[in-house]
Amino acid sequence: MLPKEQAARIRKQLAEFGLRATPQRLLVLAILEDANEHLDAEGIFEEARKRDPKISLATVYRTLSKLKEVGMVEQRYFARDHKREYYETARKEEHYHFTCLGCSKVMELHTPRIAQARQELSEELGIEFTHACICFEGFCPECAARRRERGQNEKPALPLQLNVAR
């Protein structure tokens, strides 16, 4: 059962997006709001089953799909292979993710530089951005320190960068 305040707030948000406040939508949004980590659909499902043993994985996927469609939930990838999708509630503040190649910790990053780059590219090339998908990878401070101690300062191999010619 959701706290009354949280349920009322989520109901209001759903109404603003023109969606009915189904128990599944309330549950999935509450799980995403309460999460202390980034969750994939299976992680959301596991948490949902604790609160509603009758919910199915298919229902979680359908719910996420609908919430994503209307813009209440954003799908993220934390690695360049895009093998695993993670979900979070949509935020007004733009942010990106850094994944540690050593311990797999994911950190949220906030920077105005990506928006500046999009603006510059838009003006220079006449293109209109609708979305930016940027994954930062490397080593967190703890893993970087351990690598330095072991003399592993070399950088991991990165894929080739392509420049777009006009």
Description of the molecule:
- This protein has 166 residues and is an alpha+beta fold.
- It folds into two domains: 1-90, Orthogonal Bundle (Arc Repressor Mutant, subunit A); 93-166, Ferric-uptake regulator, C-terminal dimerisarion domain (Dna Ligase, domain 1, 2-Layer Sandwich).
- Helices cover 43% and strands 14% of the residues.
- The protein contains six helices and six strands; from the N terminus they run ααβααββββαβα.
- Strand 4 (96-100) and strand 5 (106-109) form a beta hairpin.
- The termini are far apart.
- Mean pLDDT is 86; it is low at 157-166.
Shape designation: globular
CATH class designation of the largest domain: Mainly Alpha
The number of distinct structural domains comes to 2
CATH architecture of the largest domain: Orthogonal Bundle
Mean pLDDT: 86
Q: Superfamily at the CATH H level of the largest domain?
A: Winged helix-like DNA-binding domain superfamily/Winged helix DNA-binding domain
Intertermini distance: 56 Å
Question: Share of helix among residues?
Answer: 40-55%
What Rg do the Cα atoms give? 19 Å
Defining traits:
166 residues; alpha+beta; Arc Repressor Mutant, subunit A; Dna Ligase, domain 1; 3-stranded antiparallel sheet; 6 helices; 6 strands; 43% helix; 14% strand; globular; disordered C terminus
